[in-house]
Amino acid sequence: MKWISAVSKRTIFIYFILLFLLYLFYVLNTFSVDENMFTFKYLTLKRHVSNYNYVTRRFAALLGYNFKDKYMTLRKPNLVPTKRLPDALIIGVKKCGTRALLEFLRLHPDVRAAGSEVHFFDKFYHKGFEWYRNRMPPTLEGQITMEKTPSYWVTRSAPKRVFAMNPAVKLLAVVRDPVTRAISDYTQSASKRPSLPRFEELALMDGPWGSVVDTWPPVRLGIYARPLRRWLRRFPRSRILIISGERLVVDPAAEMTRVQEFLNLKPVITEKHFYFNSTKGFPCLLKSESRSTPHCLGKTKGRNHPYIDPVALERLREFYRPHNERFYELSGINFGWQ
After folding, report:
1. Would the pLDDT of 31 be above 70?
2. Which among 89, 123, 144, 215 would be 20 to 30 A from 151, CA to CA?
3. Rounded Cα distance, 174 and 97, in Å
4. Which residues contact 71 (CB under 8 A, 6 or more apart)?
5. Catalytic pick from 41, 46, 76, 95?
6. From the CB of residue 43, how many other CB atoms can be counted at a distance below 10 Å?
7. DSSP 8-state secondary structure symbol assigned to residue 204
8. Helix crossing, 310-331 with 225-234: angle to 10°?
C-alpha cells in the first residue's frame, strides 16, 4: 500500500473510527433498556467490540500501522537487504543499446541490477526461480531489482515464463534502425572472426542487387514486430516501454526521463550525468555507481562500421520498410527510420 500517503492513511483511519461509533449506537439501540435485558446486551456488545478490535488491527496493518498494547506505532521499514526476483527486465534488443541503458540506470540510487546477463528465461529456466533469485543483488525495501538479457526478446517461450514469474513485471526494450543494427551486429562478429565474408555477401543473395537473406540472424533480429507481437499476447502495452536507441545516444537525459517515469522512479538521472565523447560518437558518464570520475562504457562501444555498398543499404531499407510500419503500429511510436 505504498501509494497511500500519510495524510490519506490518517483520514481513512478516522473515517473507520466514525463508522464504528455509528455501528455501536445501532447495536445499543437494538435492545430494550429493560434491566432484564442488560446481561444479554452486555455480552452482545462485548462480542461486537472484540470483533471490531480484530478488524481494526487488520485494517490498520494494511495502512502501515502496528498496535502494541495500547499504543499505535508506525511499522519500521525493512532495513536488511534481501534478494528478490526482478521488478523490471531489459529484454532486448541486441546491439541496440541495452548495455548503455543498464549502465545509465545504475546511476539511480533506487536501482540495483544483476552484474551480468543471467539468461534464466532462455537457458536456465529449468533451475527454478530460487536459483534465479540468488543471482539478483540484495535490495532494500523500495528499491527496484533489474536484470538484462537481450536474447529474451527473441526467445519464444520467454513471455510465458516471465508472466509466470510476475504478471506485473515491467519490461524495457531498446530498438534502433534495423539496418544500422544489422551492420553493428556484423561488426561485432567480424572483430572476433576477421575471416568473415563481407556484410553484403551475407545479407544479400547474388550481390548488392540480390534478395535479402532474412534468415541471417543480423537481418532477422531487425524484424521487431514479430517478437513484440508475442510479448503483447502476455503483457499489455502499458507494461512494455520501447526505447529509442538513437535518442539514447543523441539525448540520453531525455530518454532516461521516460525510463524513470515508466519505472515510477524519482527523476534523479539528468543531463548533469552525461557528456558526449566526439571520438567514440557516444555519450559517456561523468560519474556512476562504481566510479566518481568520467568514463565511457568500454572499448567495444562505438566501433567504426565497415564501408557498405549504398545499393545494398537501399535494398535493406526496402526490405525493412513494411516490417517497420507494422512495428510502429504495434508499439504506438513512429521511429522515422528510412
Report:
1. no
2. 144
3. 6
4. none
5. 95
6. 10
7. B
8. 20
Q: Confidence band (pLDDT; 50, 70, 90) for 65?
A: low
- Is it the case that residue 48 has pLDDT exceeding 70? no
* Binding site per annotation, positions for 3'-phosphoadenylyl sulfate: 95-99, 176, 184, 301-305
Strands 138-139 and 71-74: unpaired
- Does residue 202 have a pLDDT over 90? yes
More confident residue, 58 or 115: 115
Return d(Cα 294, Cα 286) in angstroms, integer.
Answer: 4
**Which cell is 15 given?**
473515517
Q: Which residues pair with 90 in a beta bridge?
A: 148, 172
From the list 150, 181, 151, 218, the residue with the least C-alpha distance to 305 is 181
- Tell me 196's DSSP state: P
* Residue 108: predicted pLDDT: 96
Place of cell 543471482: 135
Contact in structure between 93 and 175 (CB atoms under 8 Å): yes
Q: What is the DSSP letter of 133?
A: H
- Is the omega angle on the peptide bond into residue 93 within 30 degrees of 0, that is, cis? yes
| Max CA separation in the chain (angstroms) | 106
Percentage of the residues of the chain whose pLDDT score is greater than 90: 65
Please list, in sequence order, all residues whose beta carbon lies within 8 angstroms of the beta carbon of residue 299, skipping any fewer than 6 positions away. Answer: none
| Residue appearing with cell numbers 543499404 | 313
Q: Are 147 and 114 in contact (CB under 8 A)?
A: yes
Q: Residue 95 catalytic? A: yes
Q: Detail the residues annotated as belonging to a binding site.
A: 95-99, 176, 184, 301-305
Q: Which three cell numbers stand for residue 276?
A: 558526449
Using alpha carbons, list the distances in angstroms from residue 49 to 24, 37, 57, 287: 9, 18, 12, 59
pTM: 0.75
Question: For cell 529456466, what's the residue?
Answer: 125
* pLDDT recorded at residue 281: 74
Which amino acid is it at 331? S
CA 182 to chain centre: 25
- Nearest 5°: CA angle at 230, between 224 and 233? 135
Q: Which pLDDT value is given to residue 335?
A: 97
Cell of 167: 504478471
